[in-house]
Design brief:
The protein has about 350 residues and is of the alpha/beta class. A ten-stranded mixed sheet has the order 2-1-3-12-11-4-5-10-8-9, sandwiched between helices. Strands 6-7 form a two-stranded antiparallel ribbon. Strand 11 and strand 12 form a beta hairpin. The longest helix is centred in the middle third of the chain and has 16 residues. The two termini are about 25 Å apart. Bound molecules: adenosine-5'-triphosphate.
Length: about 350
């Protein structure tokens, strides 16, 4: 049976980059059944559902979800985002968010020193808790006395399982990032669980950094990092920073996983890129590398390596989009990767 892949390009740049990822998967020999679903701002405005109950039913049956990006100026960002991406992450309990940053070509790095450019790190971001659960409220809204509370939710189970996953994927070191000097309650739980889980992995090096120090160290010398494990908000912020270190938002992939159920949703780190969407110039690399993470997760590591190698070679030859120094369109950049897979 071929793997069943639910395809959700959604909006903006997502609609342009996901077809390129599928094109590359087919060229790499992925004998999958791709089924595209009508989940996007148009469907939301038409039906009132971010995801209709029928589509939700089908998504549950997929072996993996290949995702683009959500967002549209015509809809309320928070409610729509919550109804699509956050719902998928929360209800499928995709608690691990993997965000690798690997430098495929020297010229994409903003780091001057050559010895600081061997970037190949992984951010393991907690994906189902933190401030993203939407707990809180606004009191005396709209008045001068207004009070707004946004709760940062951290649970014993949630923190433990994400730290455990970081150790499961680390090669040389796990760095835990929090802000426990200021956020003493949440940080205290992270510290307790960190120490307990780390004690069971004495073969792996460990280090703790406050998030401000982590941001500074990532810019100073990103080569020092292997795996960084952190909460939902800090993971979101630091992974934009690491994306920029290896060529920008256009090249960064991500995986949302539940290692217990095997479920996974794979999406580029970038959003809908409204400033450049629809012009045929968005970079499909982040989506293609997300597809590579998907096939690795589905048990095809050789195919994943072949796709990654083809991407690296195309970037090296400057057969890529303009944001990373080429002059190809989105579709031509996808073709450049396909050509290397077929050679
Ligand atoms: P959203 O609200 O959907 O997250 P955004 O504009 O806030 O959209 P991103 O879509 O992540 O955030 O984009 C940030 C900027 O990075 C964009 O304005 C664009 O210039 C650049 N960018 C993002 N994705 C790509 C891409 N695939 N190729 C080239 N540039 C990109």
């Amino acid at each position: 049976m071929p793997e069943k892949i639910a395809v959700l390009p959604c909006d903006g740049a997502g609609k342009e980059v996901v077809p390129e990822a599928i094109k590359v998967l087919r060229a790499a020999g992925a004998d999958f059944a791709f089924e595209e679903f009508d989940v996007n701002a148009d469907a939301y405005l038409r039906t009132g559902h971010a995801i209709t109950p029928e589509v939700w039913n089908d998504l549950q049956k997929a072996d993996a979800i290949l995702f683009g990006a959500v967002g549209d100026p015509r809809v309320n960002d928070a409610a729509y985002l919550a109804g699509v991406l956050l719902r998928l992450r929360f209800e499928l309990d995709l608690y691990v968010n993997l965000r690798p940053a690997k430098l495929y070509d020297d010229r994409l790095s903003p780091i001057r020193r050559e010895d600081r450019r061997q970037v190949d790190l992984l951010i393991v971001r907690e994906n189902t808790e933190g401030i993203y659960v939407g707990l809180g409220g606004r009191f005396k809204k709209g008045t001068k006395d207004e009070v707004a509370l946004q709760e940062d939710v951290n649970t014993h189970g949630g923190v433990t399982r994400i730290i455990e996953h970081a150790f499961a994927v680390a090669k040389r070191e796990v760095v835990m990032v929090d802000k426990s000097n200021a956020m003493t309650h949440a940080g205290g739980l992270w510290q307790d669980r960190w120490k307990a889980v780390a004690a069971q992995h004495s073969n792996v090096k460990t280090r703790h950094l406050y998030v401000d120090a982590a941001a500074m160290q990532l810019v100073k010398d990103p080569t020092q990092f292997d795996v960084i494990v952190t909460g939902n908000l800090f993971g979101d912020i630091l992974s934009d920073l690491t994306a920029e270190l290896v060529g920008g938002m256009g090249v960064a992939p991500s995986a949302n996983l539940n290692p217990a159920t095997g479920r996974g949703l794979f999406e580029p780190v970038h959003g809908t890129a409204p400033d450049i969407a629809g012009q045929g110039i968005v970079n499909p690399t982040g989506a293609i590398l997300s597809a590579s993470m998907m096939v690795k997760h589905l048990g095809f590591p050789d195919m994943a390596d072949a796709i990654e190698g083809a991407v690296e070679s195309a970037i090296g030859a400057r057969e890529c989009t303009r944001d990373i120094g080429g002059n190809l369109s989105t579709s031509q950049a996808g073709d450049a990767v396909v050509k290397r897979l077929s050679d």
